[in-house]
Specification:
Elements (H helix, E strand, L loop, with lengths): L6 E5 L6 E6 L4 E4 L4 E4 L3 E7 L2 H11 L4 E7 L4 E5 L7 E13 L4 E5 L2 E7 L2 H4 L6 E14 L4 E13 L3 E5 L2 E7 L7 H6 L3 E14 L3 H8 L8 H8 L2
Antiparallel strand pairs: 1-2, 2-7, 3-6, 3-9, 4-7, 5-6, 8-11, 8-13, 9-11, 10-11, 12-15, 13-15, 14-15
Length: about 240
Amino acid sequence: MSQYEIKHEILGRPDYAMIKLSLEENQMANVEPSAMAAMDSNIRMKTKAKGGIIKGIKRKLTGESFFMNEFTAKKGPGELFISPALPGDTEHIYLEDSNIILQGSAFVASSEGVTIDSKFQGLKGLFNGEGFFLIQAKGIGDLFFNTYGSMIEIPVDGNYVVDNGYIVAFEDTLQYHTEVVGGLKFGVTTLMSGEGIVCRFEGHGRLWIQSRQLGPFVGWASTFGTGKKGLVGSVLDNV
């Protein structure tokens, strides 16, 4: 086992996955903020801004915190339980001097040999309804990322089209561009909502998609709000 490889177990799959990391003495893991659920008392946490002030601002624009929590086992090994923010599955990949591109909220944790950075997408990023930046994970070591819903891995060899709201991650061996489908005209509403926008992937590599979108669920759940009559009130009126 290399110094960047962490013993781990993914529990509760596929609906409510939780990661159990077994850190060796002085081994460190990078974890997204607020994801620590439980840990041995000899594990120490340090919060750091990754990539400096400018890159931190970029992450702030994506809705992602530019802070990262570092957990290190001191004076012996220790266990760390990590709980992702969204209910769904979690995937583990061991990077071997390779790159994975993640959508903003997918990153959960990584080992010390993996660098997490914001990757500017230019106008391509404008089309995805998620912000201007994607996250790039590169280097050598463990990478953990999660979905909302189930995770599906698709081996791409040639061309493949995915609705922007279902993309979780993809290998950087895949090239992609965004386009409007269904005869929609490009405009402000399309730009901000992501409706009718897809990504066309080309090349050879792996692509991960999720079985659900968070946006439609939030819209559905908002109908139960107390500030409006909502769906429940409408149903009761017709009973």
